[in-house]
Specification:
It holds the Pfam family GMC_oxred_N. Belongs to the GMC oxidoreductase family. The protein has 433 residues and is an alpha+beta fold. It is 25% helix and 20% strand. The protein has 13 helices and 20 strands. The two termini are 20 Å apart. It binds flavin-adenine dinucleotide. Flavin-adenine dinucleotide binds next to strand 7 and helix 4.
């Protein structure tokens, strides 16, 4: 990662602070003293002269199993987020949890405010009394579902096979009623394929006996590919504090997660008059038949029909609506090269027209499957992501600042399947228009 030039901004280094919230509402963060102040008109329009937007009590209950809160450790620049976005032309949502998920806000997380730990296990598992019919096997990998295949037209699951490692003996659990497969977007098709349920050509090539030829298994894989503009900063970031162990990497510090987000639709991305959006829509509509014949990674007609249905739904119901096509994220968890501290403003595609697939290549369930996401195979994905990315320098230049020095130097990409690192995909040392 290289930084070509720096523009020194007016904002002084931001102070870090802990926040402690018992309720799902964000505490007001003191604005750093700065020549980069929020204009009065923007303050009046967004209500940001006072505290940051709060979660409306009517959008939340107080007695559910899952706690919702904010991280125990937050950065002062996150408090600048909504004001900065408002000045960059992105609306600030009055209540992101009231059914209208658009605009800029500080997201809540499933965090227990009492101890800043994730609240799902303590909400759903820990309160359960001992039960004979419940066993949680934390180190078990399901290797396949075993079927009674005496009636090929009506397979019945009779057991679930699992193992604790590739070399360990296979164990089985008998099934009396049903099996619910909830192994996630990658895990569920993988389990199905190893059980003989999936595209017959894939299963045969992998050496798995075909129980059911189901060509759609593993298809229509979509990922929120995002690309970010990296800014160098001389203040601490989550990555730098973690690396230096400055806070002892306590549970409170480790509860930090990127929470400053914005969801923007195409009129924000392409222009408020809607003309560019309409032109893009026509272009995509015209590209349907070519896309079906060239981009679907299957020759099966049901898979092609599925692609067409998703394509049309995205185009006709989401494209011209308030539904976001781009997610903007303020990223504080990456490290720069040579010990530099960096923050990034990312733009992520929400509804890509490029679909990929996941498929197995071996009959060993411990061999990783192949994932081909066909990123940016559809030209509309490139166009929308590019336009979304243009918001990043605009946000970087808007007040109040999110970083102390700005160097539009590197564009890096990440996907939700590869979040532990980022890979530069486009030109280095390039300024955005
Ligand atoms: C980086 C990232 C950021 C995200 N951000 C958000 C967000 O801000 N808001 C939001 O709403 N959603 C977000 N999501 C999406 C959200 O995490 C998923 O939609 C959600 O977790 C899906 O839940 P699930 O139970 O279907 O699958 P998962 O949460 O993926 O759970 C599947 C589980 O099955 C296990 N498993 C897989 N295969 C096997 C096997 N063979 N045997 C045994 N166990 C197996 C896996 O280890 C995993 O624990 C994000 C996802 C990612 C990756």
């Amino acid at each position: 990662m290289a930084f070509s030039s720096f523009i020194t901004l007016a904002c002084p280094p931001s102070a870090l602070r802990y926040i402690h919230t018992e309720h799902p509402q964000h505490q007001e963060t003191a604005q750093p003293r700065s020549r980069c102040t929020l204009p009065h008109s923007a303050q009046a329009a967004t209500g940001l002269a006072g505290p940051l937007p709060r979660v409306h009590a009517s959008s939340r209950s107080t007695n559910g199993p899952i706690h919702v809160s904010y991280p125990g450790f937050e950065f002062a620049t996150v408090g600048n987020w909504t004001g900065t976005l408002a000045n960059a032309g992105v609306e600030v949502t009055p209540d992101a949890y009231g059914g209208e998920n658009y605009g800029a806000y500080i997201a809540t997380n499933s965090i227990n405010p009492a101890n800043r730990t994730r609240s799902s296990r303590s909400g759903y598992i820990d309160p359960l009394p001992p039960r004979d019919n419940l066993a949680v096997l934390p180190n078990a990998t399901v290797t396949r579902i075993i079927f009674d295949s005496s009636n090929k037209d009506n397979l019945t699951a009779t057991a679930v096979e699992w193992a604790s490692s590739a070399d360990a003996a296979r164990e089985t659990i008998k099934v009396r009623k049903e099996v619910i497969i909830s192994s996630g977007a990658m895990g569920s098709p993988r389990v199905l394929m190893h059980s003989g349920v999936g595209p017959s050509d894939v299963l045969q090539a992998a050496g798995v006996d075909v129980q059911v030829n189901l060509p759609g298994v593993g298809q229509h894989l979509q990922d929120h590919l995002s690309s970010g503009l990296v800014f160098q900063t001389n203040t601490d970031t989550a990555a730098s504090l973690y690396a230096s162990n400055a806070n002892g990497n306590t549970p409170i510090f480790l509860s930090h997660v990127n929470s400053a987000v914005a969801y923007v639709n195409l009129t924000v991305v392409l222009g408020a008059d809607g003309e560019a959006t309409l032109k893009q829509q026509i272009r995509i509509a015209n590209a349907l038949s070519t896309s079906v014949s060239t981009l679907v990674p299957s020759s099966d007609h049901t898979v092609k029909a599925g692609y067409e249905a998703i394509y049309n739904t995205t185009l006709n119901t989401m494209f011209l609506s308030g539904v976001a096509q781009i997610e903007i994220l303020y990223q504080l968890m990456d490290s720069g090269s040579n010990g530099t501290n960096v923050v990034a403003i990312q733009a992520g595609l929400q509804h890509p027209f490029s679909h990929g697939r996941i498929y197995i290549t071996s009959n060993d369930p411990f061999v990783e499957p192949l994932i081909n996401l066909q990123y940016l195979a559809h030209s509309a994905d490139i166009a929308i992501l590019r336009e979304g990315l243009k918001l990043a320098p605009k946000i970087g230049r808007s007040c109040p600042r999110l970083s102390t020095r700005m160097a539009v130097s590197t564009i890096s990409s990440r996907s939700s399947t590869t979040t532990s690192h980022s890979t530069p995909i486009t030109r280095r040392r390039r300024r955005m228009p």
